[in-house]
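Box 3.1 A note on notation
Throughout this textbook, protein chains are presented in two layers. The first layer is the amino acid sequence; the second is a token string describing backbone geometry. Keep the layers aligned when reading.
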Amino acid sequence: MTISTTLLFNRAVSLMGRQQSALAELQEKVSTGKELVRSSDSPELAVNIARIKSSIGEMDAFKSSLNAVNDRLRIEESYLDGAKDVLIKLKQLTLQGANASMSGRDKEVLALQVDELIAEIKNLANGTDANGNYLFAGSRVTTPPYIEDADGIIRYHGDNFRPNIDYTANRRSAIGRNGIDVFRPVLSGQSTAPTPGIHQISLTGTLEPGDVYTLSIDSNEFNYEVRPGDTAAGVLDSIALQVNDLASQGVIESVTADRDGSNLILSTLDGATRTVSGSTRNTSEGVDDLSVSLDLNPDDTYRLSLEGTTEPGDQVALSIGNRSLSYVVPGALGQADRSVVMRDFVTQLNQSGLFSESVDISIDPFDETQVILTPTRANIGDVSASTVERTSINDQGLSISLTQEPRRALPERVEFFHSLQEVSQLLRNGTQDEIQGKLDHLDQMLDIVTLSLADIGSEMGSIEAEISINEDIKLQLQTTLSSQEDLDFTSAITELQAKMMSLEAAQSSFAKISQLSVFDYIR
């Protein structure tokens, strides 16, 4: 193999170039302190580093939000501590005012002090944060939540909104309070009137003898079976009578039933919810064996007779020529006497006058269940008779609708500031007992504010714990980031020194080799 000077030069330059390039990369890592200087050097590692940095950024954002909420809670705590102190002073003044030895002038002085304290607690309730936003206004942070109306009563003009805070990417919680939370109404010691539940009950369909209507109130049932001649109003009256009778005995309490036109109005006066239902059925079953026969006698008279069972609702019809008349059997449920039916049938036929010009109609004197038709002229036309069995329509129903929702008596409440203003009014014009009664309201207010302070303390504790957890997570992320991103200076400097020595050796040897020439060995 022929080794030329050019070959030696090229190899040496290439080697030194690679060494210088590796040395330059290592020097850049040492100068930045980073294992990865360019993303293109290791795309996968670059993605992992970017993801970890993003998570660390989220932890910083959560910490910033939590610190801001903590600051807000400290401000709320300060305002509510002030409100609690004012309420304690108000209670002390009210206790003095309830003393029977206090004169009217003394009470007036106390009332003036109470007015000042009410103004002070109102200012605390209208407290703002560092940005000038009203703390207890809900979402209406730009307007004072507590304002006097035209009557001088301090009323709440905020809403019940509570802001949310993200503790982590997967945890959110409501933070802060509004006026409804910290200055909520107190129990007056009295109750509101109950709202009676009102059920409207009506009968639907066809009212027939044998229909049974059942009204149920909780576990109590009231039944009525329809009799001939009954009306819907009568049925409802009967059911109402049963309900009211049971109510008067104390079996069902605070329930009244009254008919209003075609409806039965059922009222539950105590506002309790009761189960009201209804059902219907028909108890009568007809006997379908009724038939009629019409025979022509040798003397040209007709004999009409009934066979089988006659029941109320059955029909008997007679047709002569182009005229006809039907008779419906009346009466109570059960079988009807055929002789009575035929006698009534004849009476109705004669009273109608429909056939008076054609036949004489009479009862057979020897058999009262038969009718004799005697033609009074020739060519009276076709004569026929028929029966129709009674049928039950069975479309009866009981309609029940709740027209007013029941509501039980509820404890009556008095607005927070209205109750405070009543203390001032009673000191001026009230009795000793009325002033004494306000002490209970003030105790409730102190409890409400104290509970709000306890909630604030609990929330602040939760936030501090969450900040600590987030700091631990951030530290773990930073450790992971350092292991992937930061340079190992000890090994890097050792490697840097080795590469520098290698480069220097290559440069030194190249300098010596470059001075050699084959002509130096020609003698």
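Residues 43-97 form the longest helix (55 residues). The domain at 197-284+396-409 is CATH 2.60.40 (Immunoglobulin-like).
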